[in-house]
Automatic annotation (TrEMBL):
This is Blue-light-activated histidine kinase. Its EC number is 2.7.13.3. It is an enzyme of class 2 (transferase). Keywords: ATP-binding, Kinase, Nucleotide-binding, Phosphoprotein, Transferase. GO terms for molecular function: ATP binding; protein histidine kinase activity. Residues 31-177 form the GAF domain. InterPro entries: GAF, GAF-like_dom_sf, HATPase_C_sf, PAS, PAS-like_dom_sf, PAS_4, Sig_transdc_His_kinase_HWE. It catalyses: ATP + protein L-histidine = ADP + protein N-phospho-L-histidine.
Length: 622
């Protein structure tokens, strides 16, 4: 069986009774669509779709009970269209939602004439059920291809369930009206039977209509007493009608009798007779309950979503939006805004300094009917960021706007942090590459051969790498001097002959990398020519602050002292390592490097303005 035949085979075939009820209900009439108009408009606004419609199954046709956004010429010949020409037939065939992101590319619709003829590109449809029977489709379509979110399907399905309840209620009311017309009301005339005090203690049926006799236990009622005919209900019925028979009261009430609800009317005809008319209203009561439940579910739909939702009534002065009043709120509203007791109050009353942007934006939506989606910060609401969707509510009350919104402050903060991190990474990478470039250039320039250049490059880049590790594991944009020194000498100090003595100090990233390279060069020279070249040699690394004085800023002073090594002499020529050390940690007032080639060991003092090297705002590498 091909797909079209399969779809036709699965088309709902209602019984004659169901079809007659549908036809008599008015749901198929072109001009009788108000009962679904609110739900269709709501679905279109919430989904932001180009069009939304409700169609009902009627033979080989789908009858459009309500729609928003479809071209009027589609219905030039009436509200019904052949099922074979509609994408809705796939919902009916599968009895489940049918989702299409692009009609032109969906493999399920290749060769489908309905897809080729459609003016829309995206389709989302859900089935409508009444008592387990598929009765129609609620669908949303978009002019452009669209990726439907899971939330879109969930919201359309929730509105579809409410539409199904509306259909069931309408059909139920029609069935009740038809039953009433065919059967007529039950009716009887009775005479009271009184005791010696004149109070009715029983009554006898004088006349009844056929509808009454068709009720269970009522056959052959004429001439019989109620205590004889209905012994189980007699006391209740006598008490109910005693005021009518004895005092001439007229009553109208709803009564629960024999498991059914009845509407009862009774009046006295004369002192010796009273008449009772009643009919079964169980169906009506059930559908009143259904209507209340549908209303509750409609409200629950908005109270259960995480997004805030509100309806505002715009206030205009001289054509300009100056304020708005909250007329409907969902439960998430207070959580999303921090505003308590907002219902019935105006925004300027709640937040006097609320920005004009909000009034202008919602005022334009109310005036033009053009929905708008935007992202904006609300300074008056604790600086929260919101992602909002605003749409006009067309109805009896003018100037009303529905607003669906979500507090995205945490997301915006995360995006800002990510942007800052990317900037810092790029900045740090730029500086690091500049340092590496300088190291490579100077090492190759001063190296005697390729092997020594390779070894020196590896050691220096490893020192740079260790400094980066310290930066990443420490505080943001700062590293400990002690950690930098310890890491830089670790490769040359397996036996713990380097004493690190300074107090806790944090310096910025550029100064951290430079200090790591300087200490590495000093340690390398100590291993080759200085204190660490002999077993008894020792090195002390110390640092301290020098307070601001004599017009100089506060300074950080770092001392490298070797002892116990061979006698040292000033080198005849300066290599890259020596030049790197002598560059120090930076310029500025008071910055200097002192190299003392004392006979008992090298002493190096590095002085730098602390304010210059302690922050991340150091000068970029050139």
């Amino acid at each position: 069986m091909d797909e079209e035949a399969d779809v036709d085979a699965k088309t709902p075939r209602w019984s004659a009774v169901h079809m007659r009820a549908l036809e008599r209900s008015g749901l198929l009439a072109k001009g009788d669509q108000d009962q679904f108009d609110r739900l269709v408009g709501l679905a279109r606004d919430v989904l932001g779709a180009s069009a939304v419609f409700v169609s009902l199954c009627h033979g080989d046709e789908q009858v459009f009970a309500a729609q928003r956004g479809l071209a009027p010429e589609l219905f030039a010949n009436g509200p019904g269209l052949p099922l074979a020409h509609l994408i809705c037939r796939h919902v009916i065939a599968g009895r489940r939602p049918f989702v299409v992101e692009d009609l032109a590319t969906d493999v399920r619709l290749v060769g489908d004439p309905a897809a080729g003829a459609s003016e829309f590109s995206a389709y989302l449809g859900v089935p409508l059920f009444v008592g387990g029977e598929l009765v129609g489709v609620l669908a949303a379509v978009d002019a452009a291809p669209r990726v439907w979110e899971e939330a879109d399907l969930s919201r359309l399905a929730a509105i579809g369930r409410i539409a199904g309840d509306e259909i069931e209620m309408r059909l139920g009311e029609t069935k009740w009206r038809t039953l009433f017309e065919d059967m007529q009301e039950s009716f009887y005339i009775a005479e009271p039977i009184r005791d010696a005090a004149g109070q009715m203690v029983d009554f006898r049926y004088l006349d009844v209509n056929p509808a009454f006799e068709r009720l269970p236990g009522r056959a052959g009622a004429v001439g019989r007493r109620v205590r004889e005919l209905l012994p189980g209900s007699a006391e209740t019925l006598i008490a109910t009608y005693r005021g009518v028979a004895d005092r001439g009261e007229t009553i109208r009430l709803e009564s629960w009798t024999d498991g059914e609800w009845y509407e009862v009317r009774a009046r006295r005809l004369d002192p010796d007779r009273f008449a009772v008319t009643f009919h079964n209203i169980s169906e009506r009561r059930r559908h009143e309950t259904l209507a209340a439940e549908a209303d509750r579910r409609y409200r629950t739909l908005f109270d259960s979503i995480d997004e805030g939702f509100c309806v505002v009534e715009m206030i205009f002065e001289d054509g300009r939006a100056v304020d708005y009043r909250y007329v409907e709120l969902n439960k998430a509203f207070a959580r999303q805004t921090g505003l308590a007791d907002a219902l019935g109050r105006t925004m300027r009353d709640l937040v006097p300094d609320h920005e004009e942007f909000w009034f202008e934006t919602y005022g334009k939506v109310a005036r033009t009917g053009e929905a708008v989606r935007f992202r904006q910060r609300a300074a008056g609401l604790e600086g929260r960021w919101y992602e909002s969707y605003a749409f006009r509510l067309d109805g009896a009350a003018p100037n009303r706007v529905g607003i669906l919104f979500n507090d995205i402050s945490e997301r915006v903060a995360a995006e800002d942090r990510r942007g800052l991190l990317n900037f810092e990474l790029a900045h740090r990478l730029k500086n690091t590459l500049a340092i590496v470039s300088s190291i490579v250039t100077q090492t190759l320039r001063s190296a005697q051969d390729v092997p020594s250049a390779r070894r020196a490059l590896i050691d220096r880049i490893q020192a740079l790498s260790k400094a980066h590790d310290i930066l990443l594991s420490g505080q943001r944009d700062a590293a400990s001097v002690a950690a930098i020194v310890a890491a830089a000498v670790a490769i040359h100090d397996q036996s713990g002959r380097v004493a690190v003595l300074g107090s806790p100090v944090q310096i910025g990233p550029k100064a951290s990398l430079t200090l790591s390279l300087i200490i590495h060069e000093l340690a390398t020279n100590a291993v080759k020519y200085g204190a660490l070249s002999m077993p008894e040699g020792r090195v002390e690394v110390d640092w301290h602050f020098r307070e601001a004085r004599d017009g100089l800023p506060a300074l950080l002073v770092i001392d490298w002292r070797e002892k116990g090594g061979p006698a040292v002499e000033r080198p005849a020529r300066k290599g890259f390592g020596t030049r790197l050390v002598e560059m120090g940690l930076g310029g500025g007032d008071g910055a200097k490097v002192e190299m003392d080639y004392a006979p008992d060991g090298l002493r190096c003092r590095i002085v730098a303005p602390f304010a210059e090297i302690a922050t991340a705002d150091e000068a970029e590498a050139g």
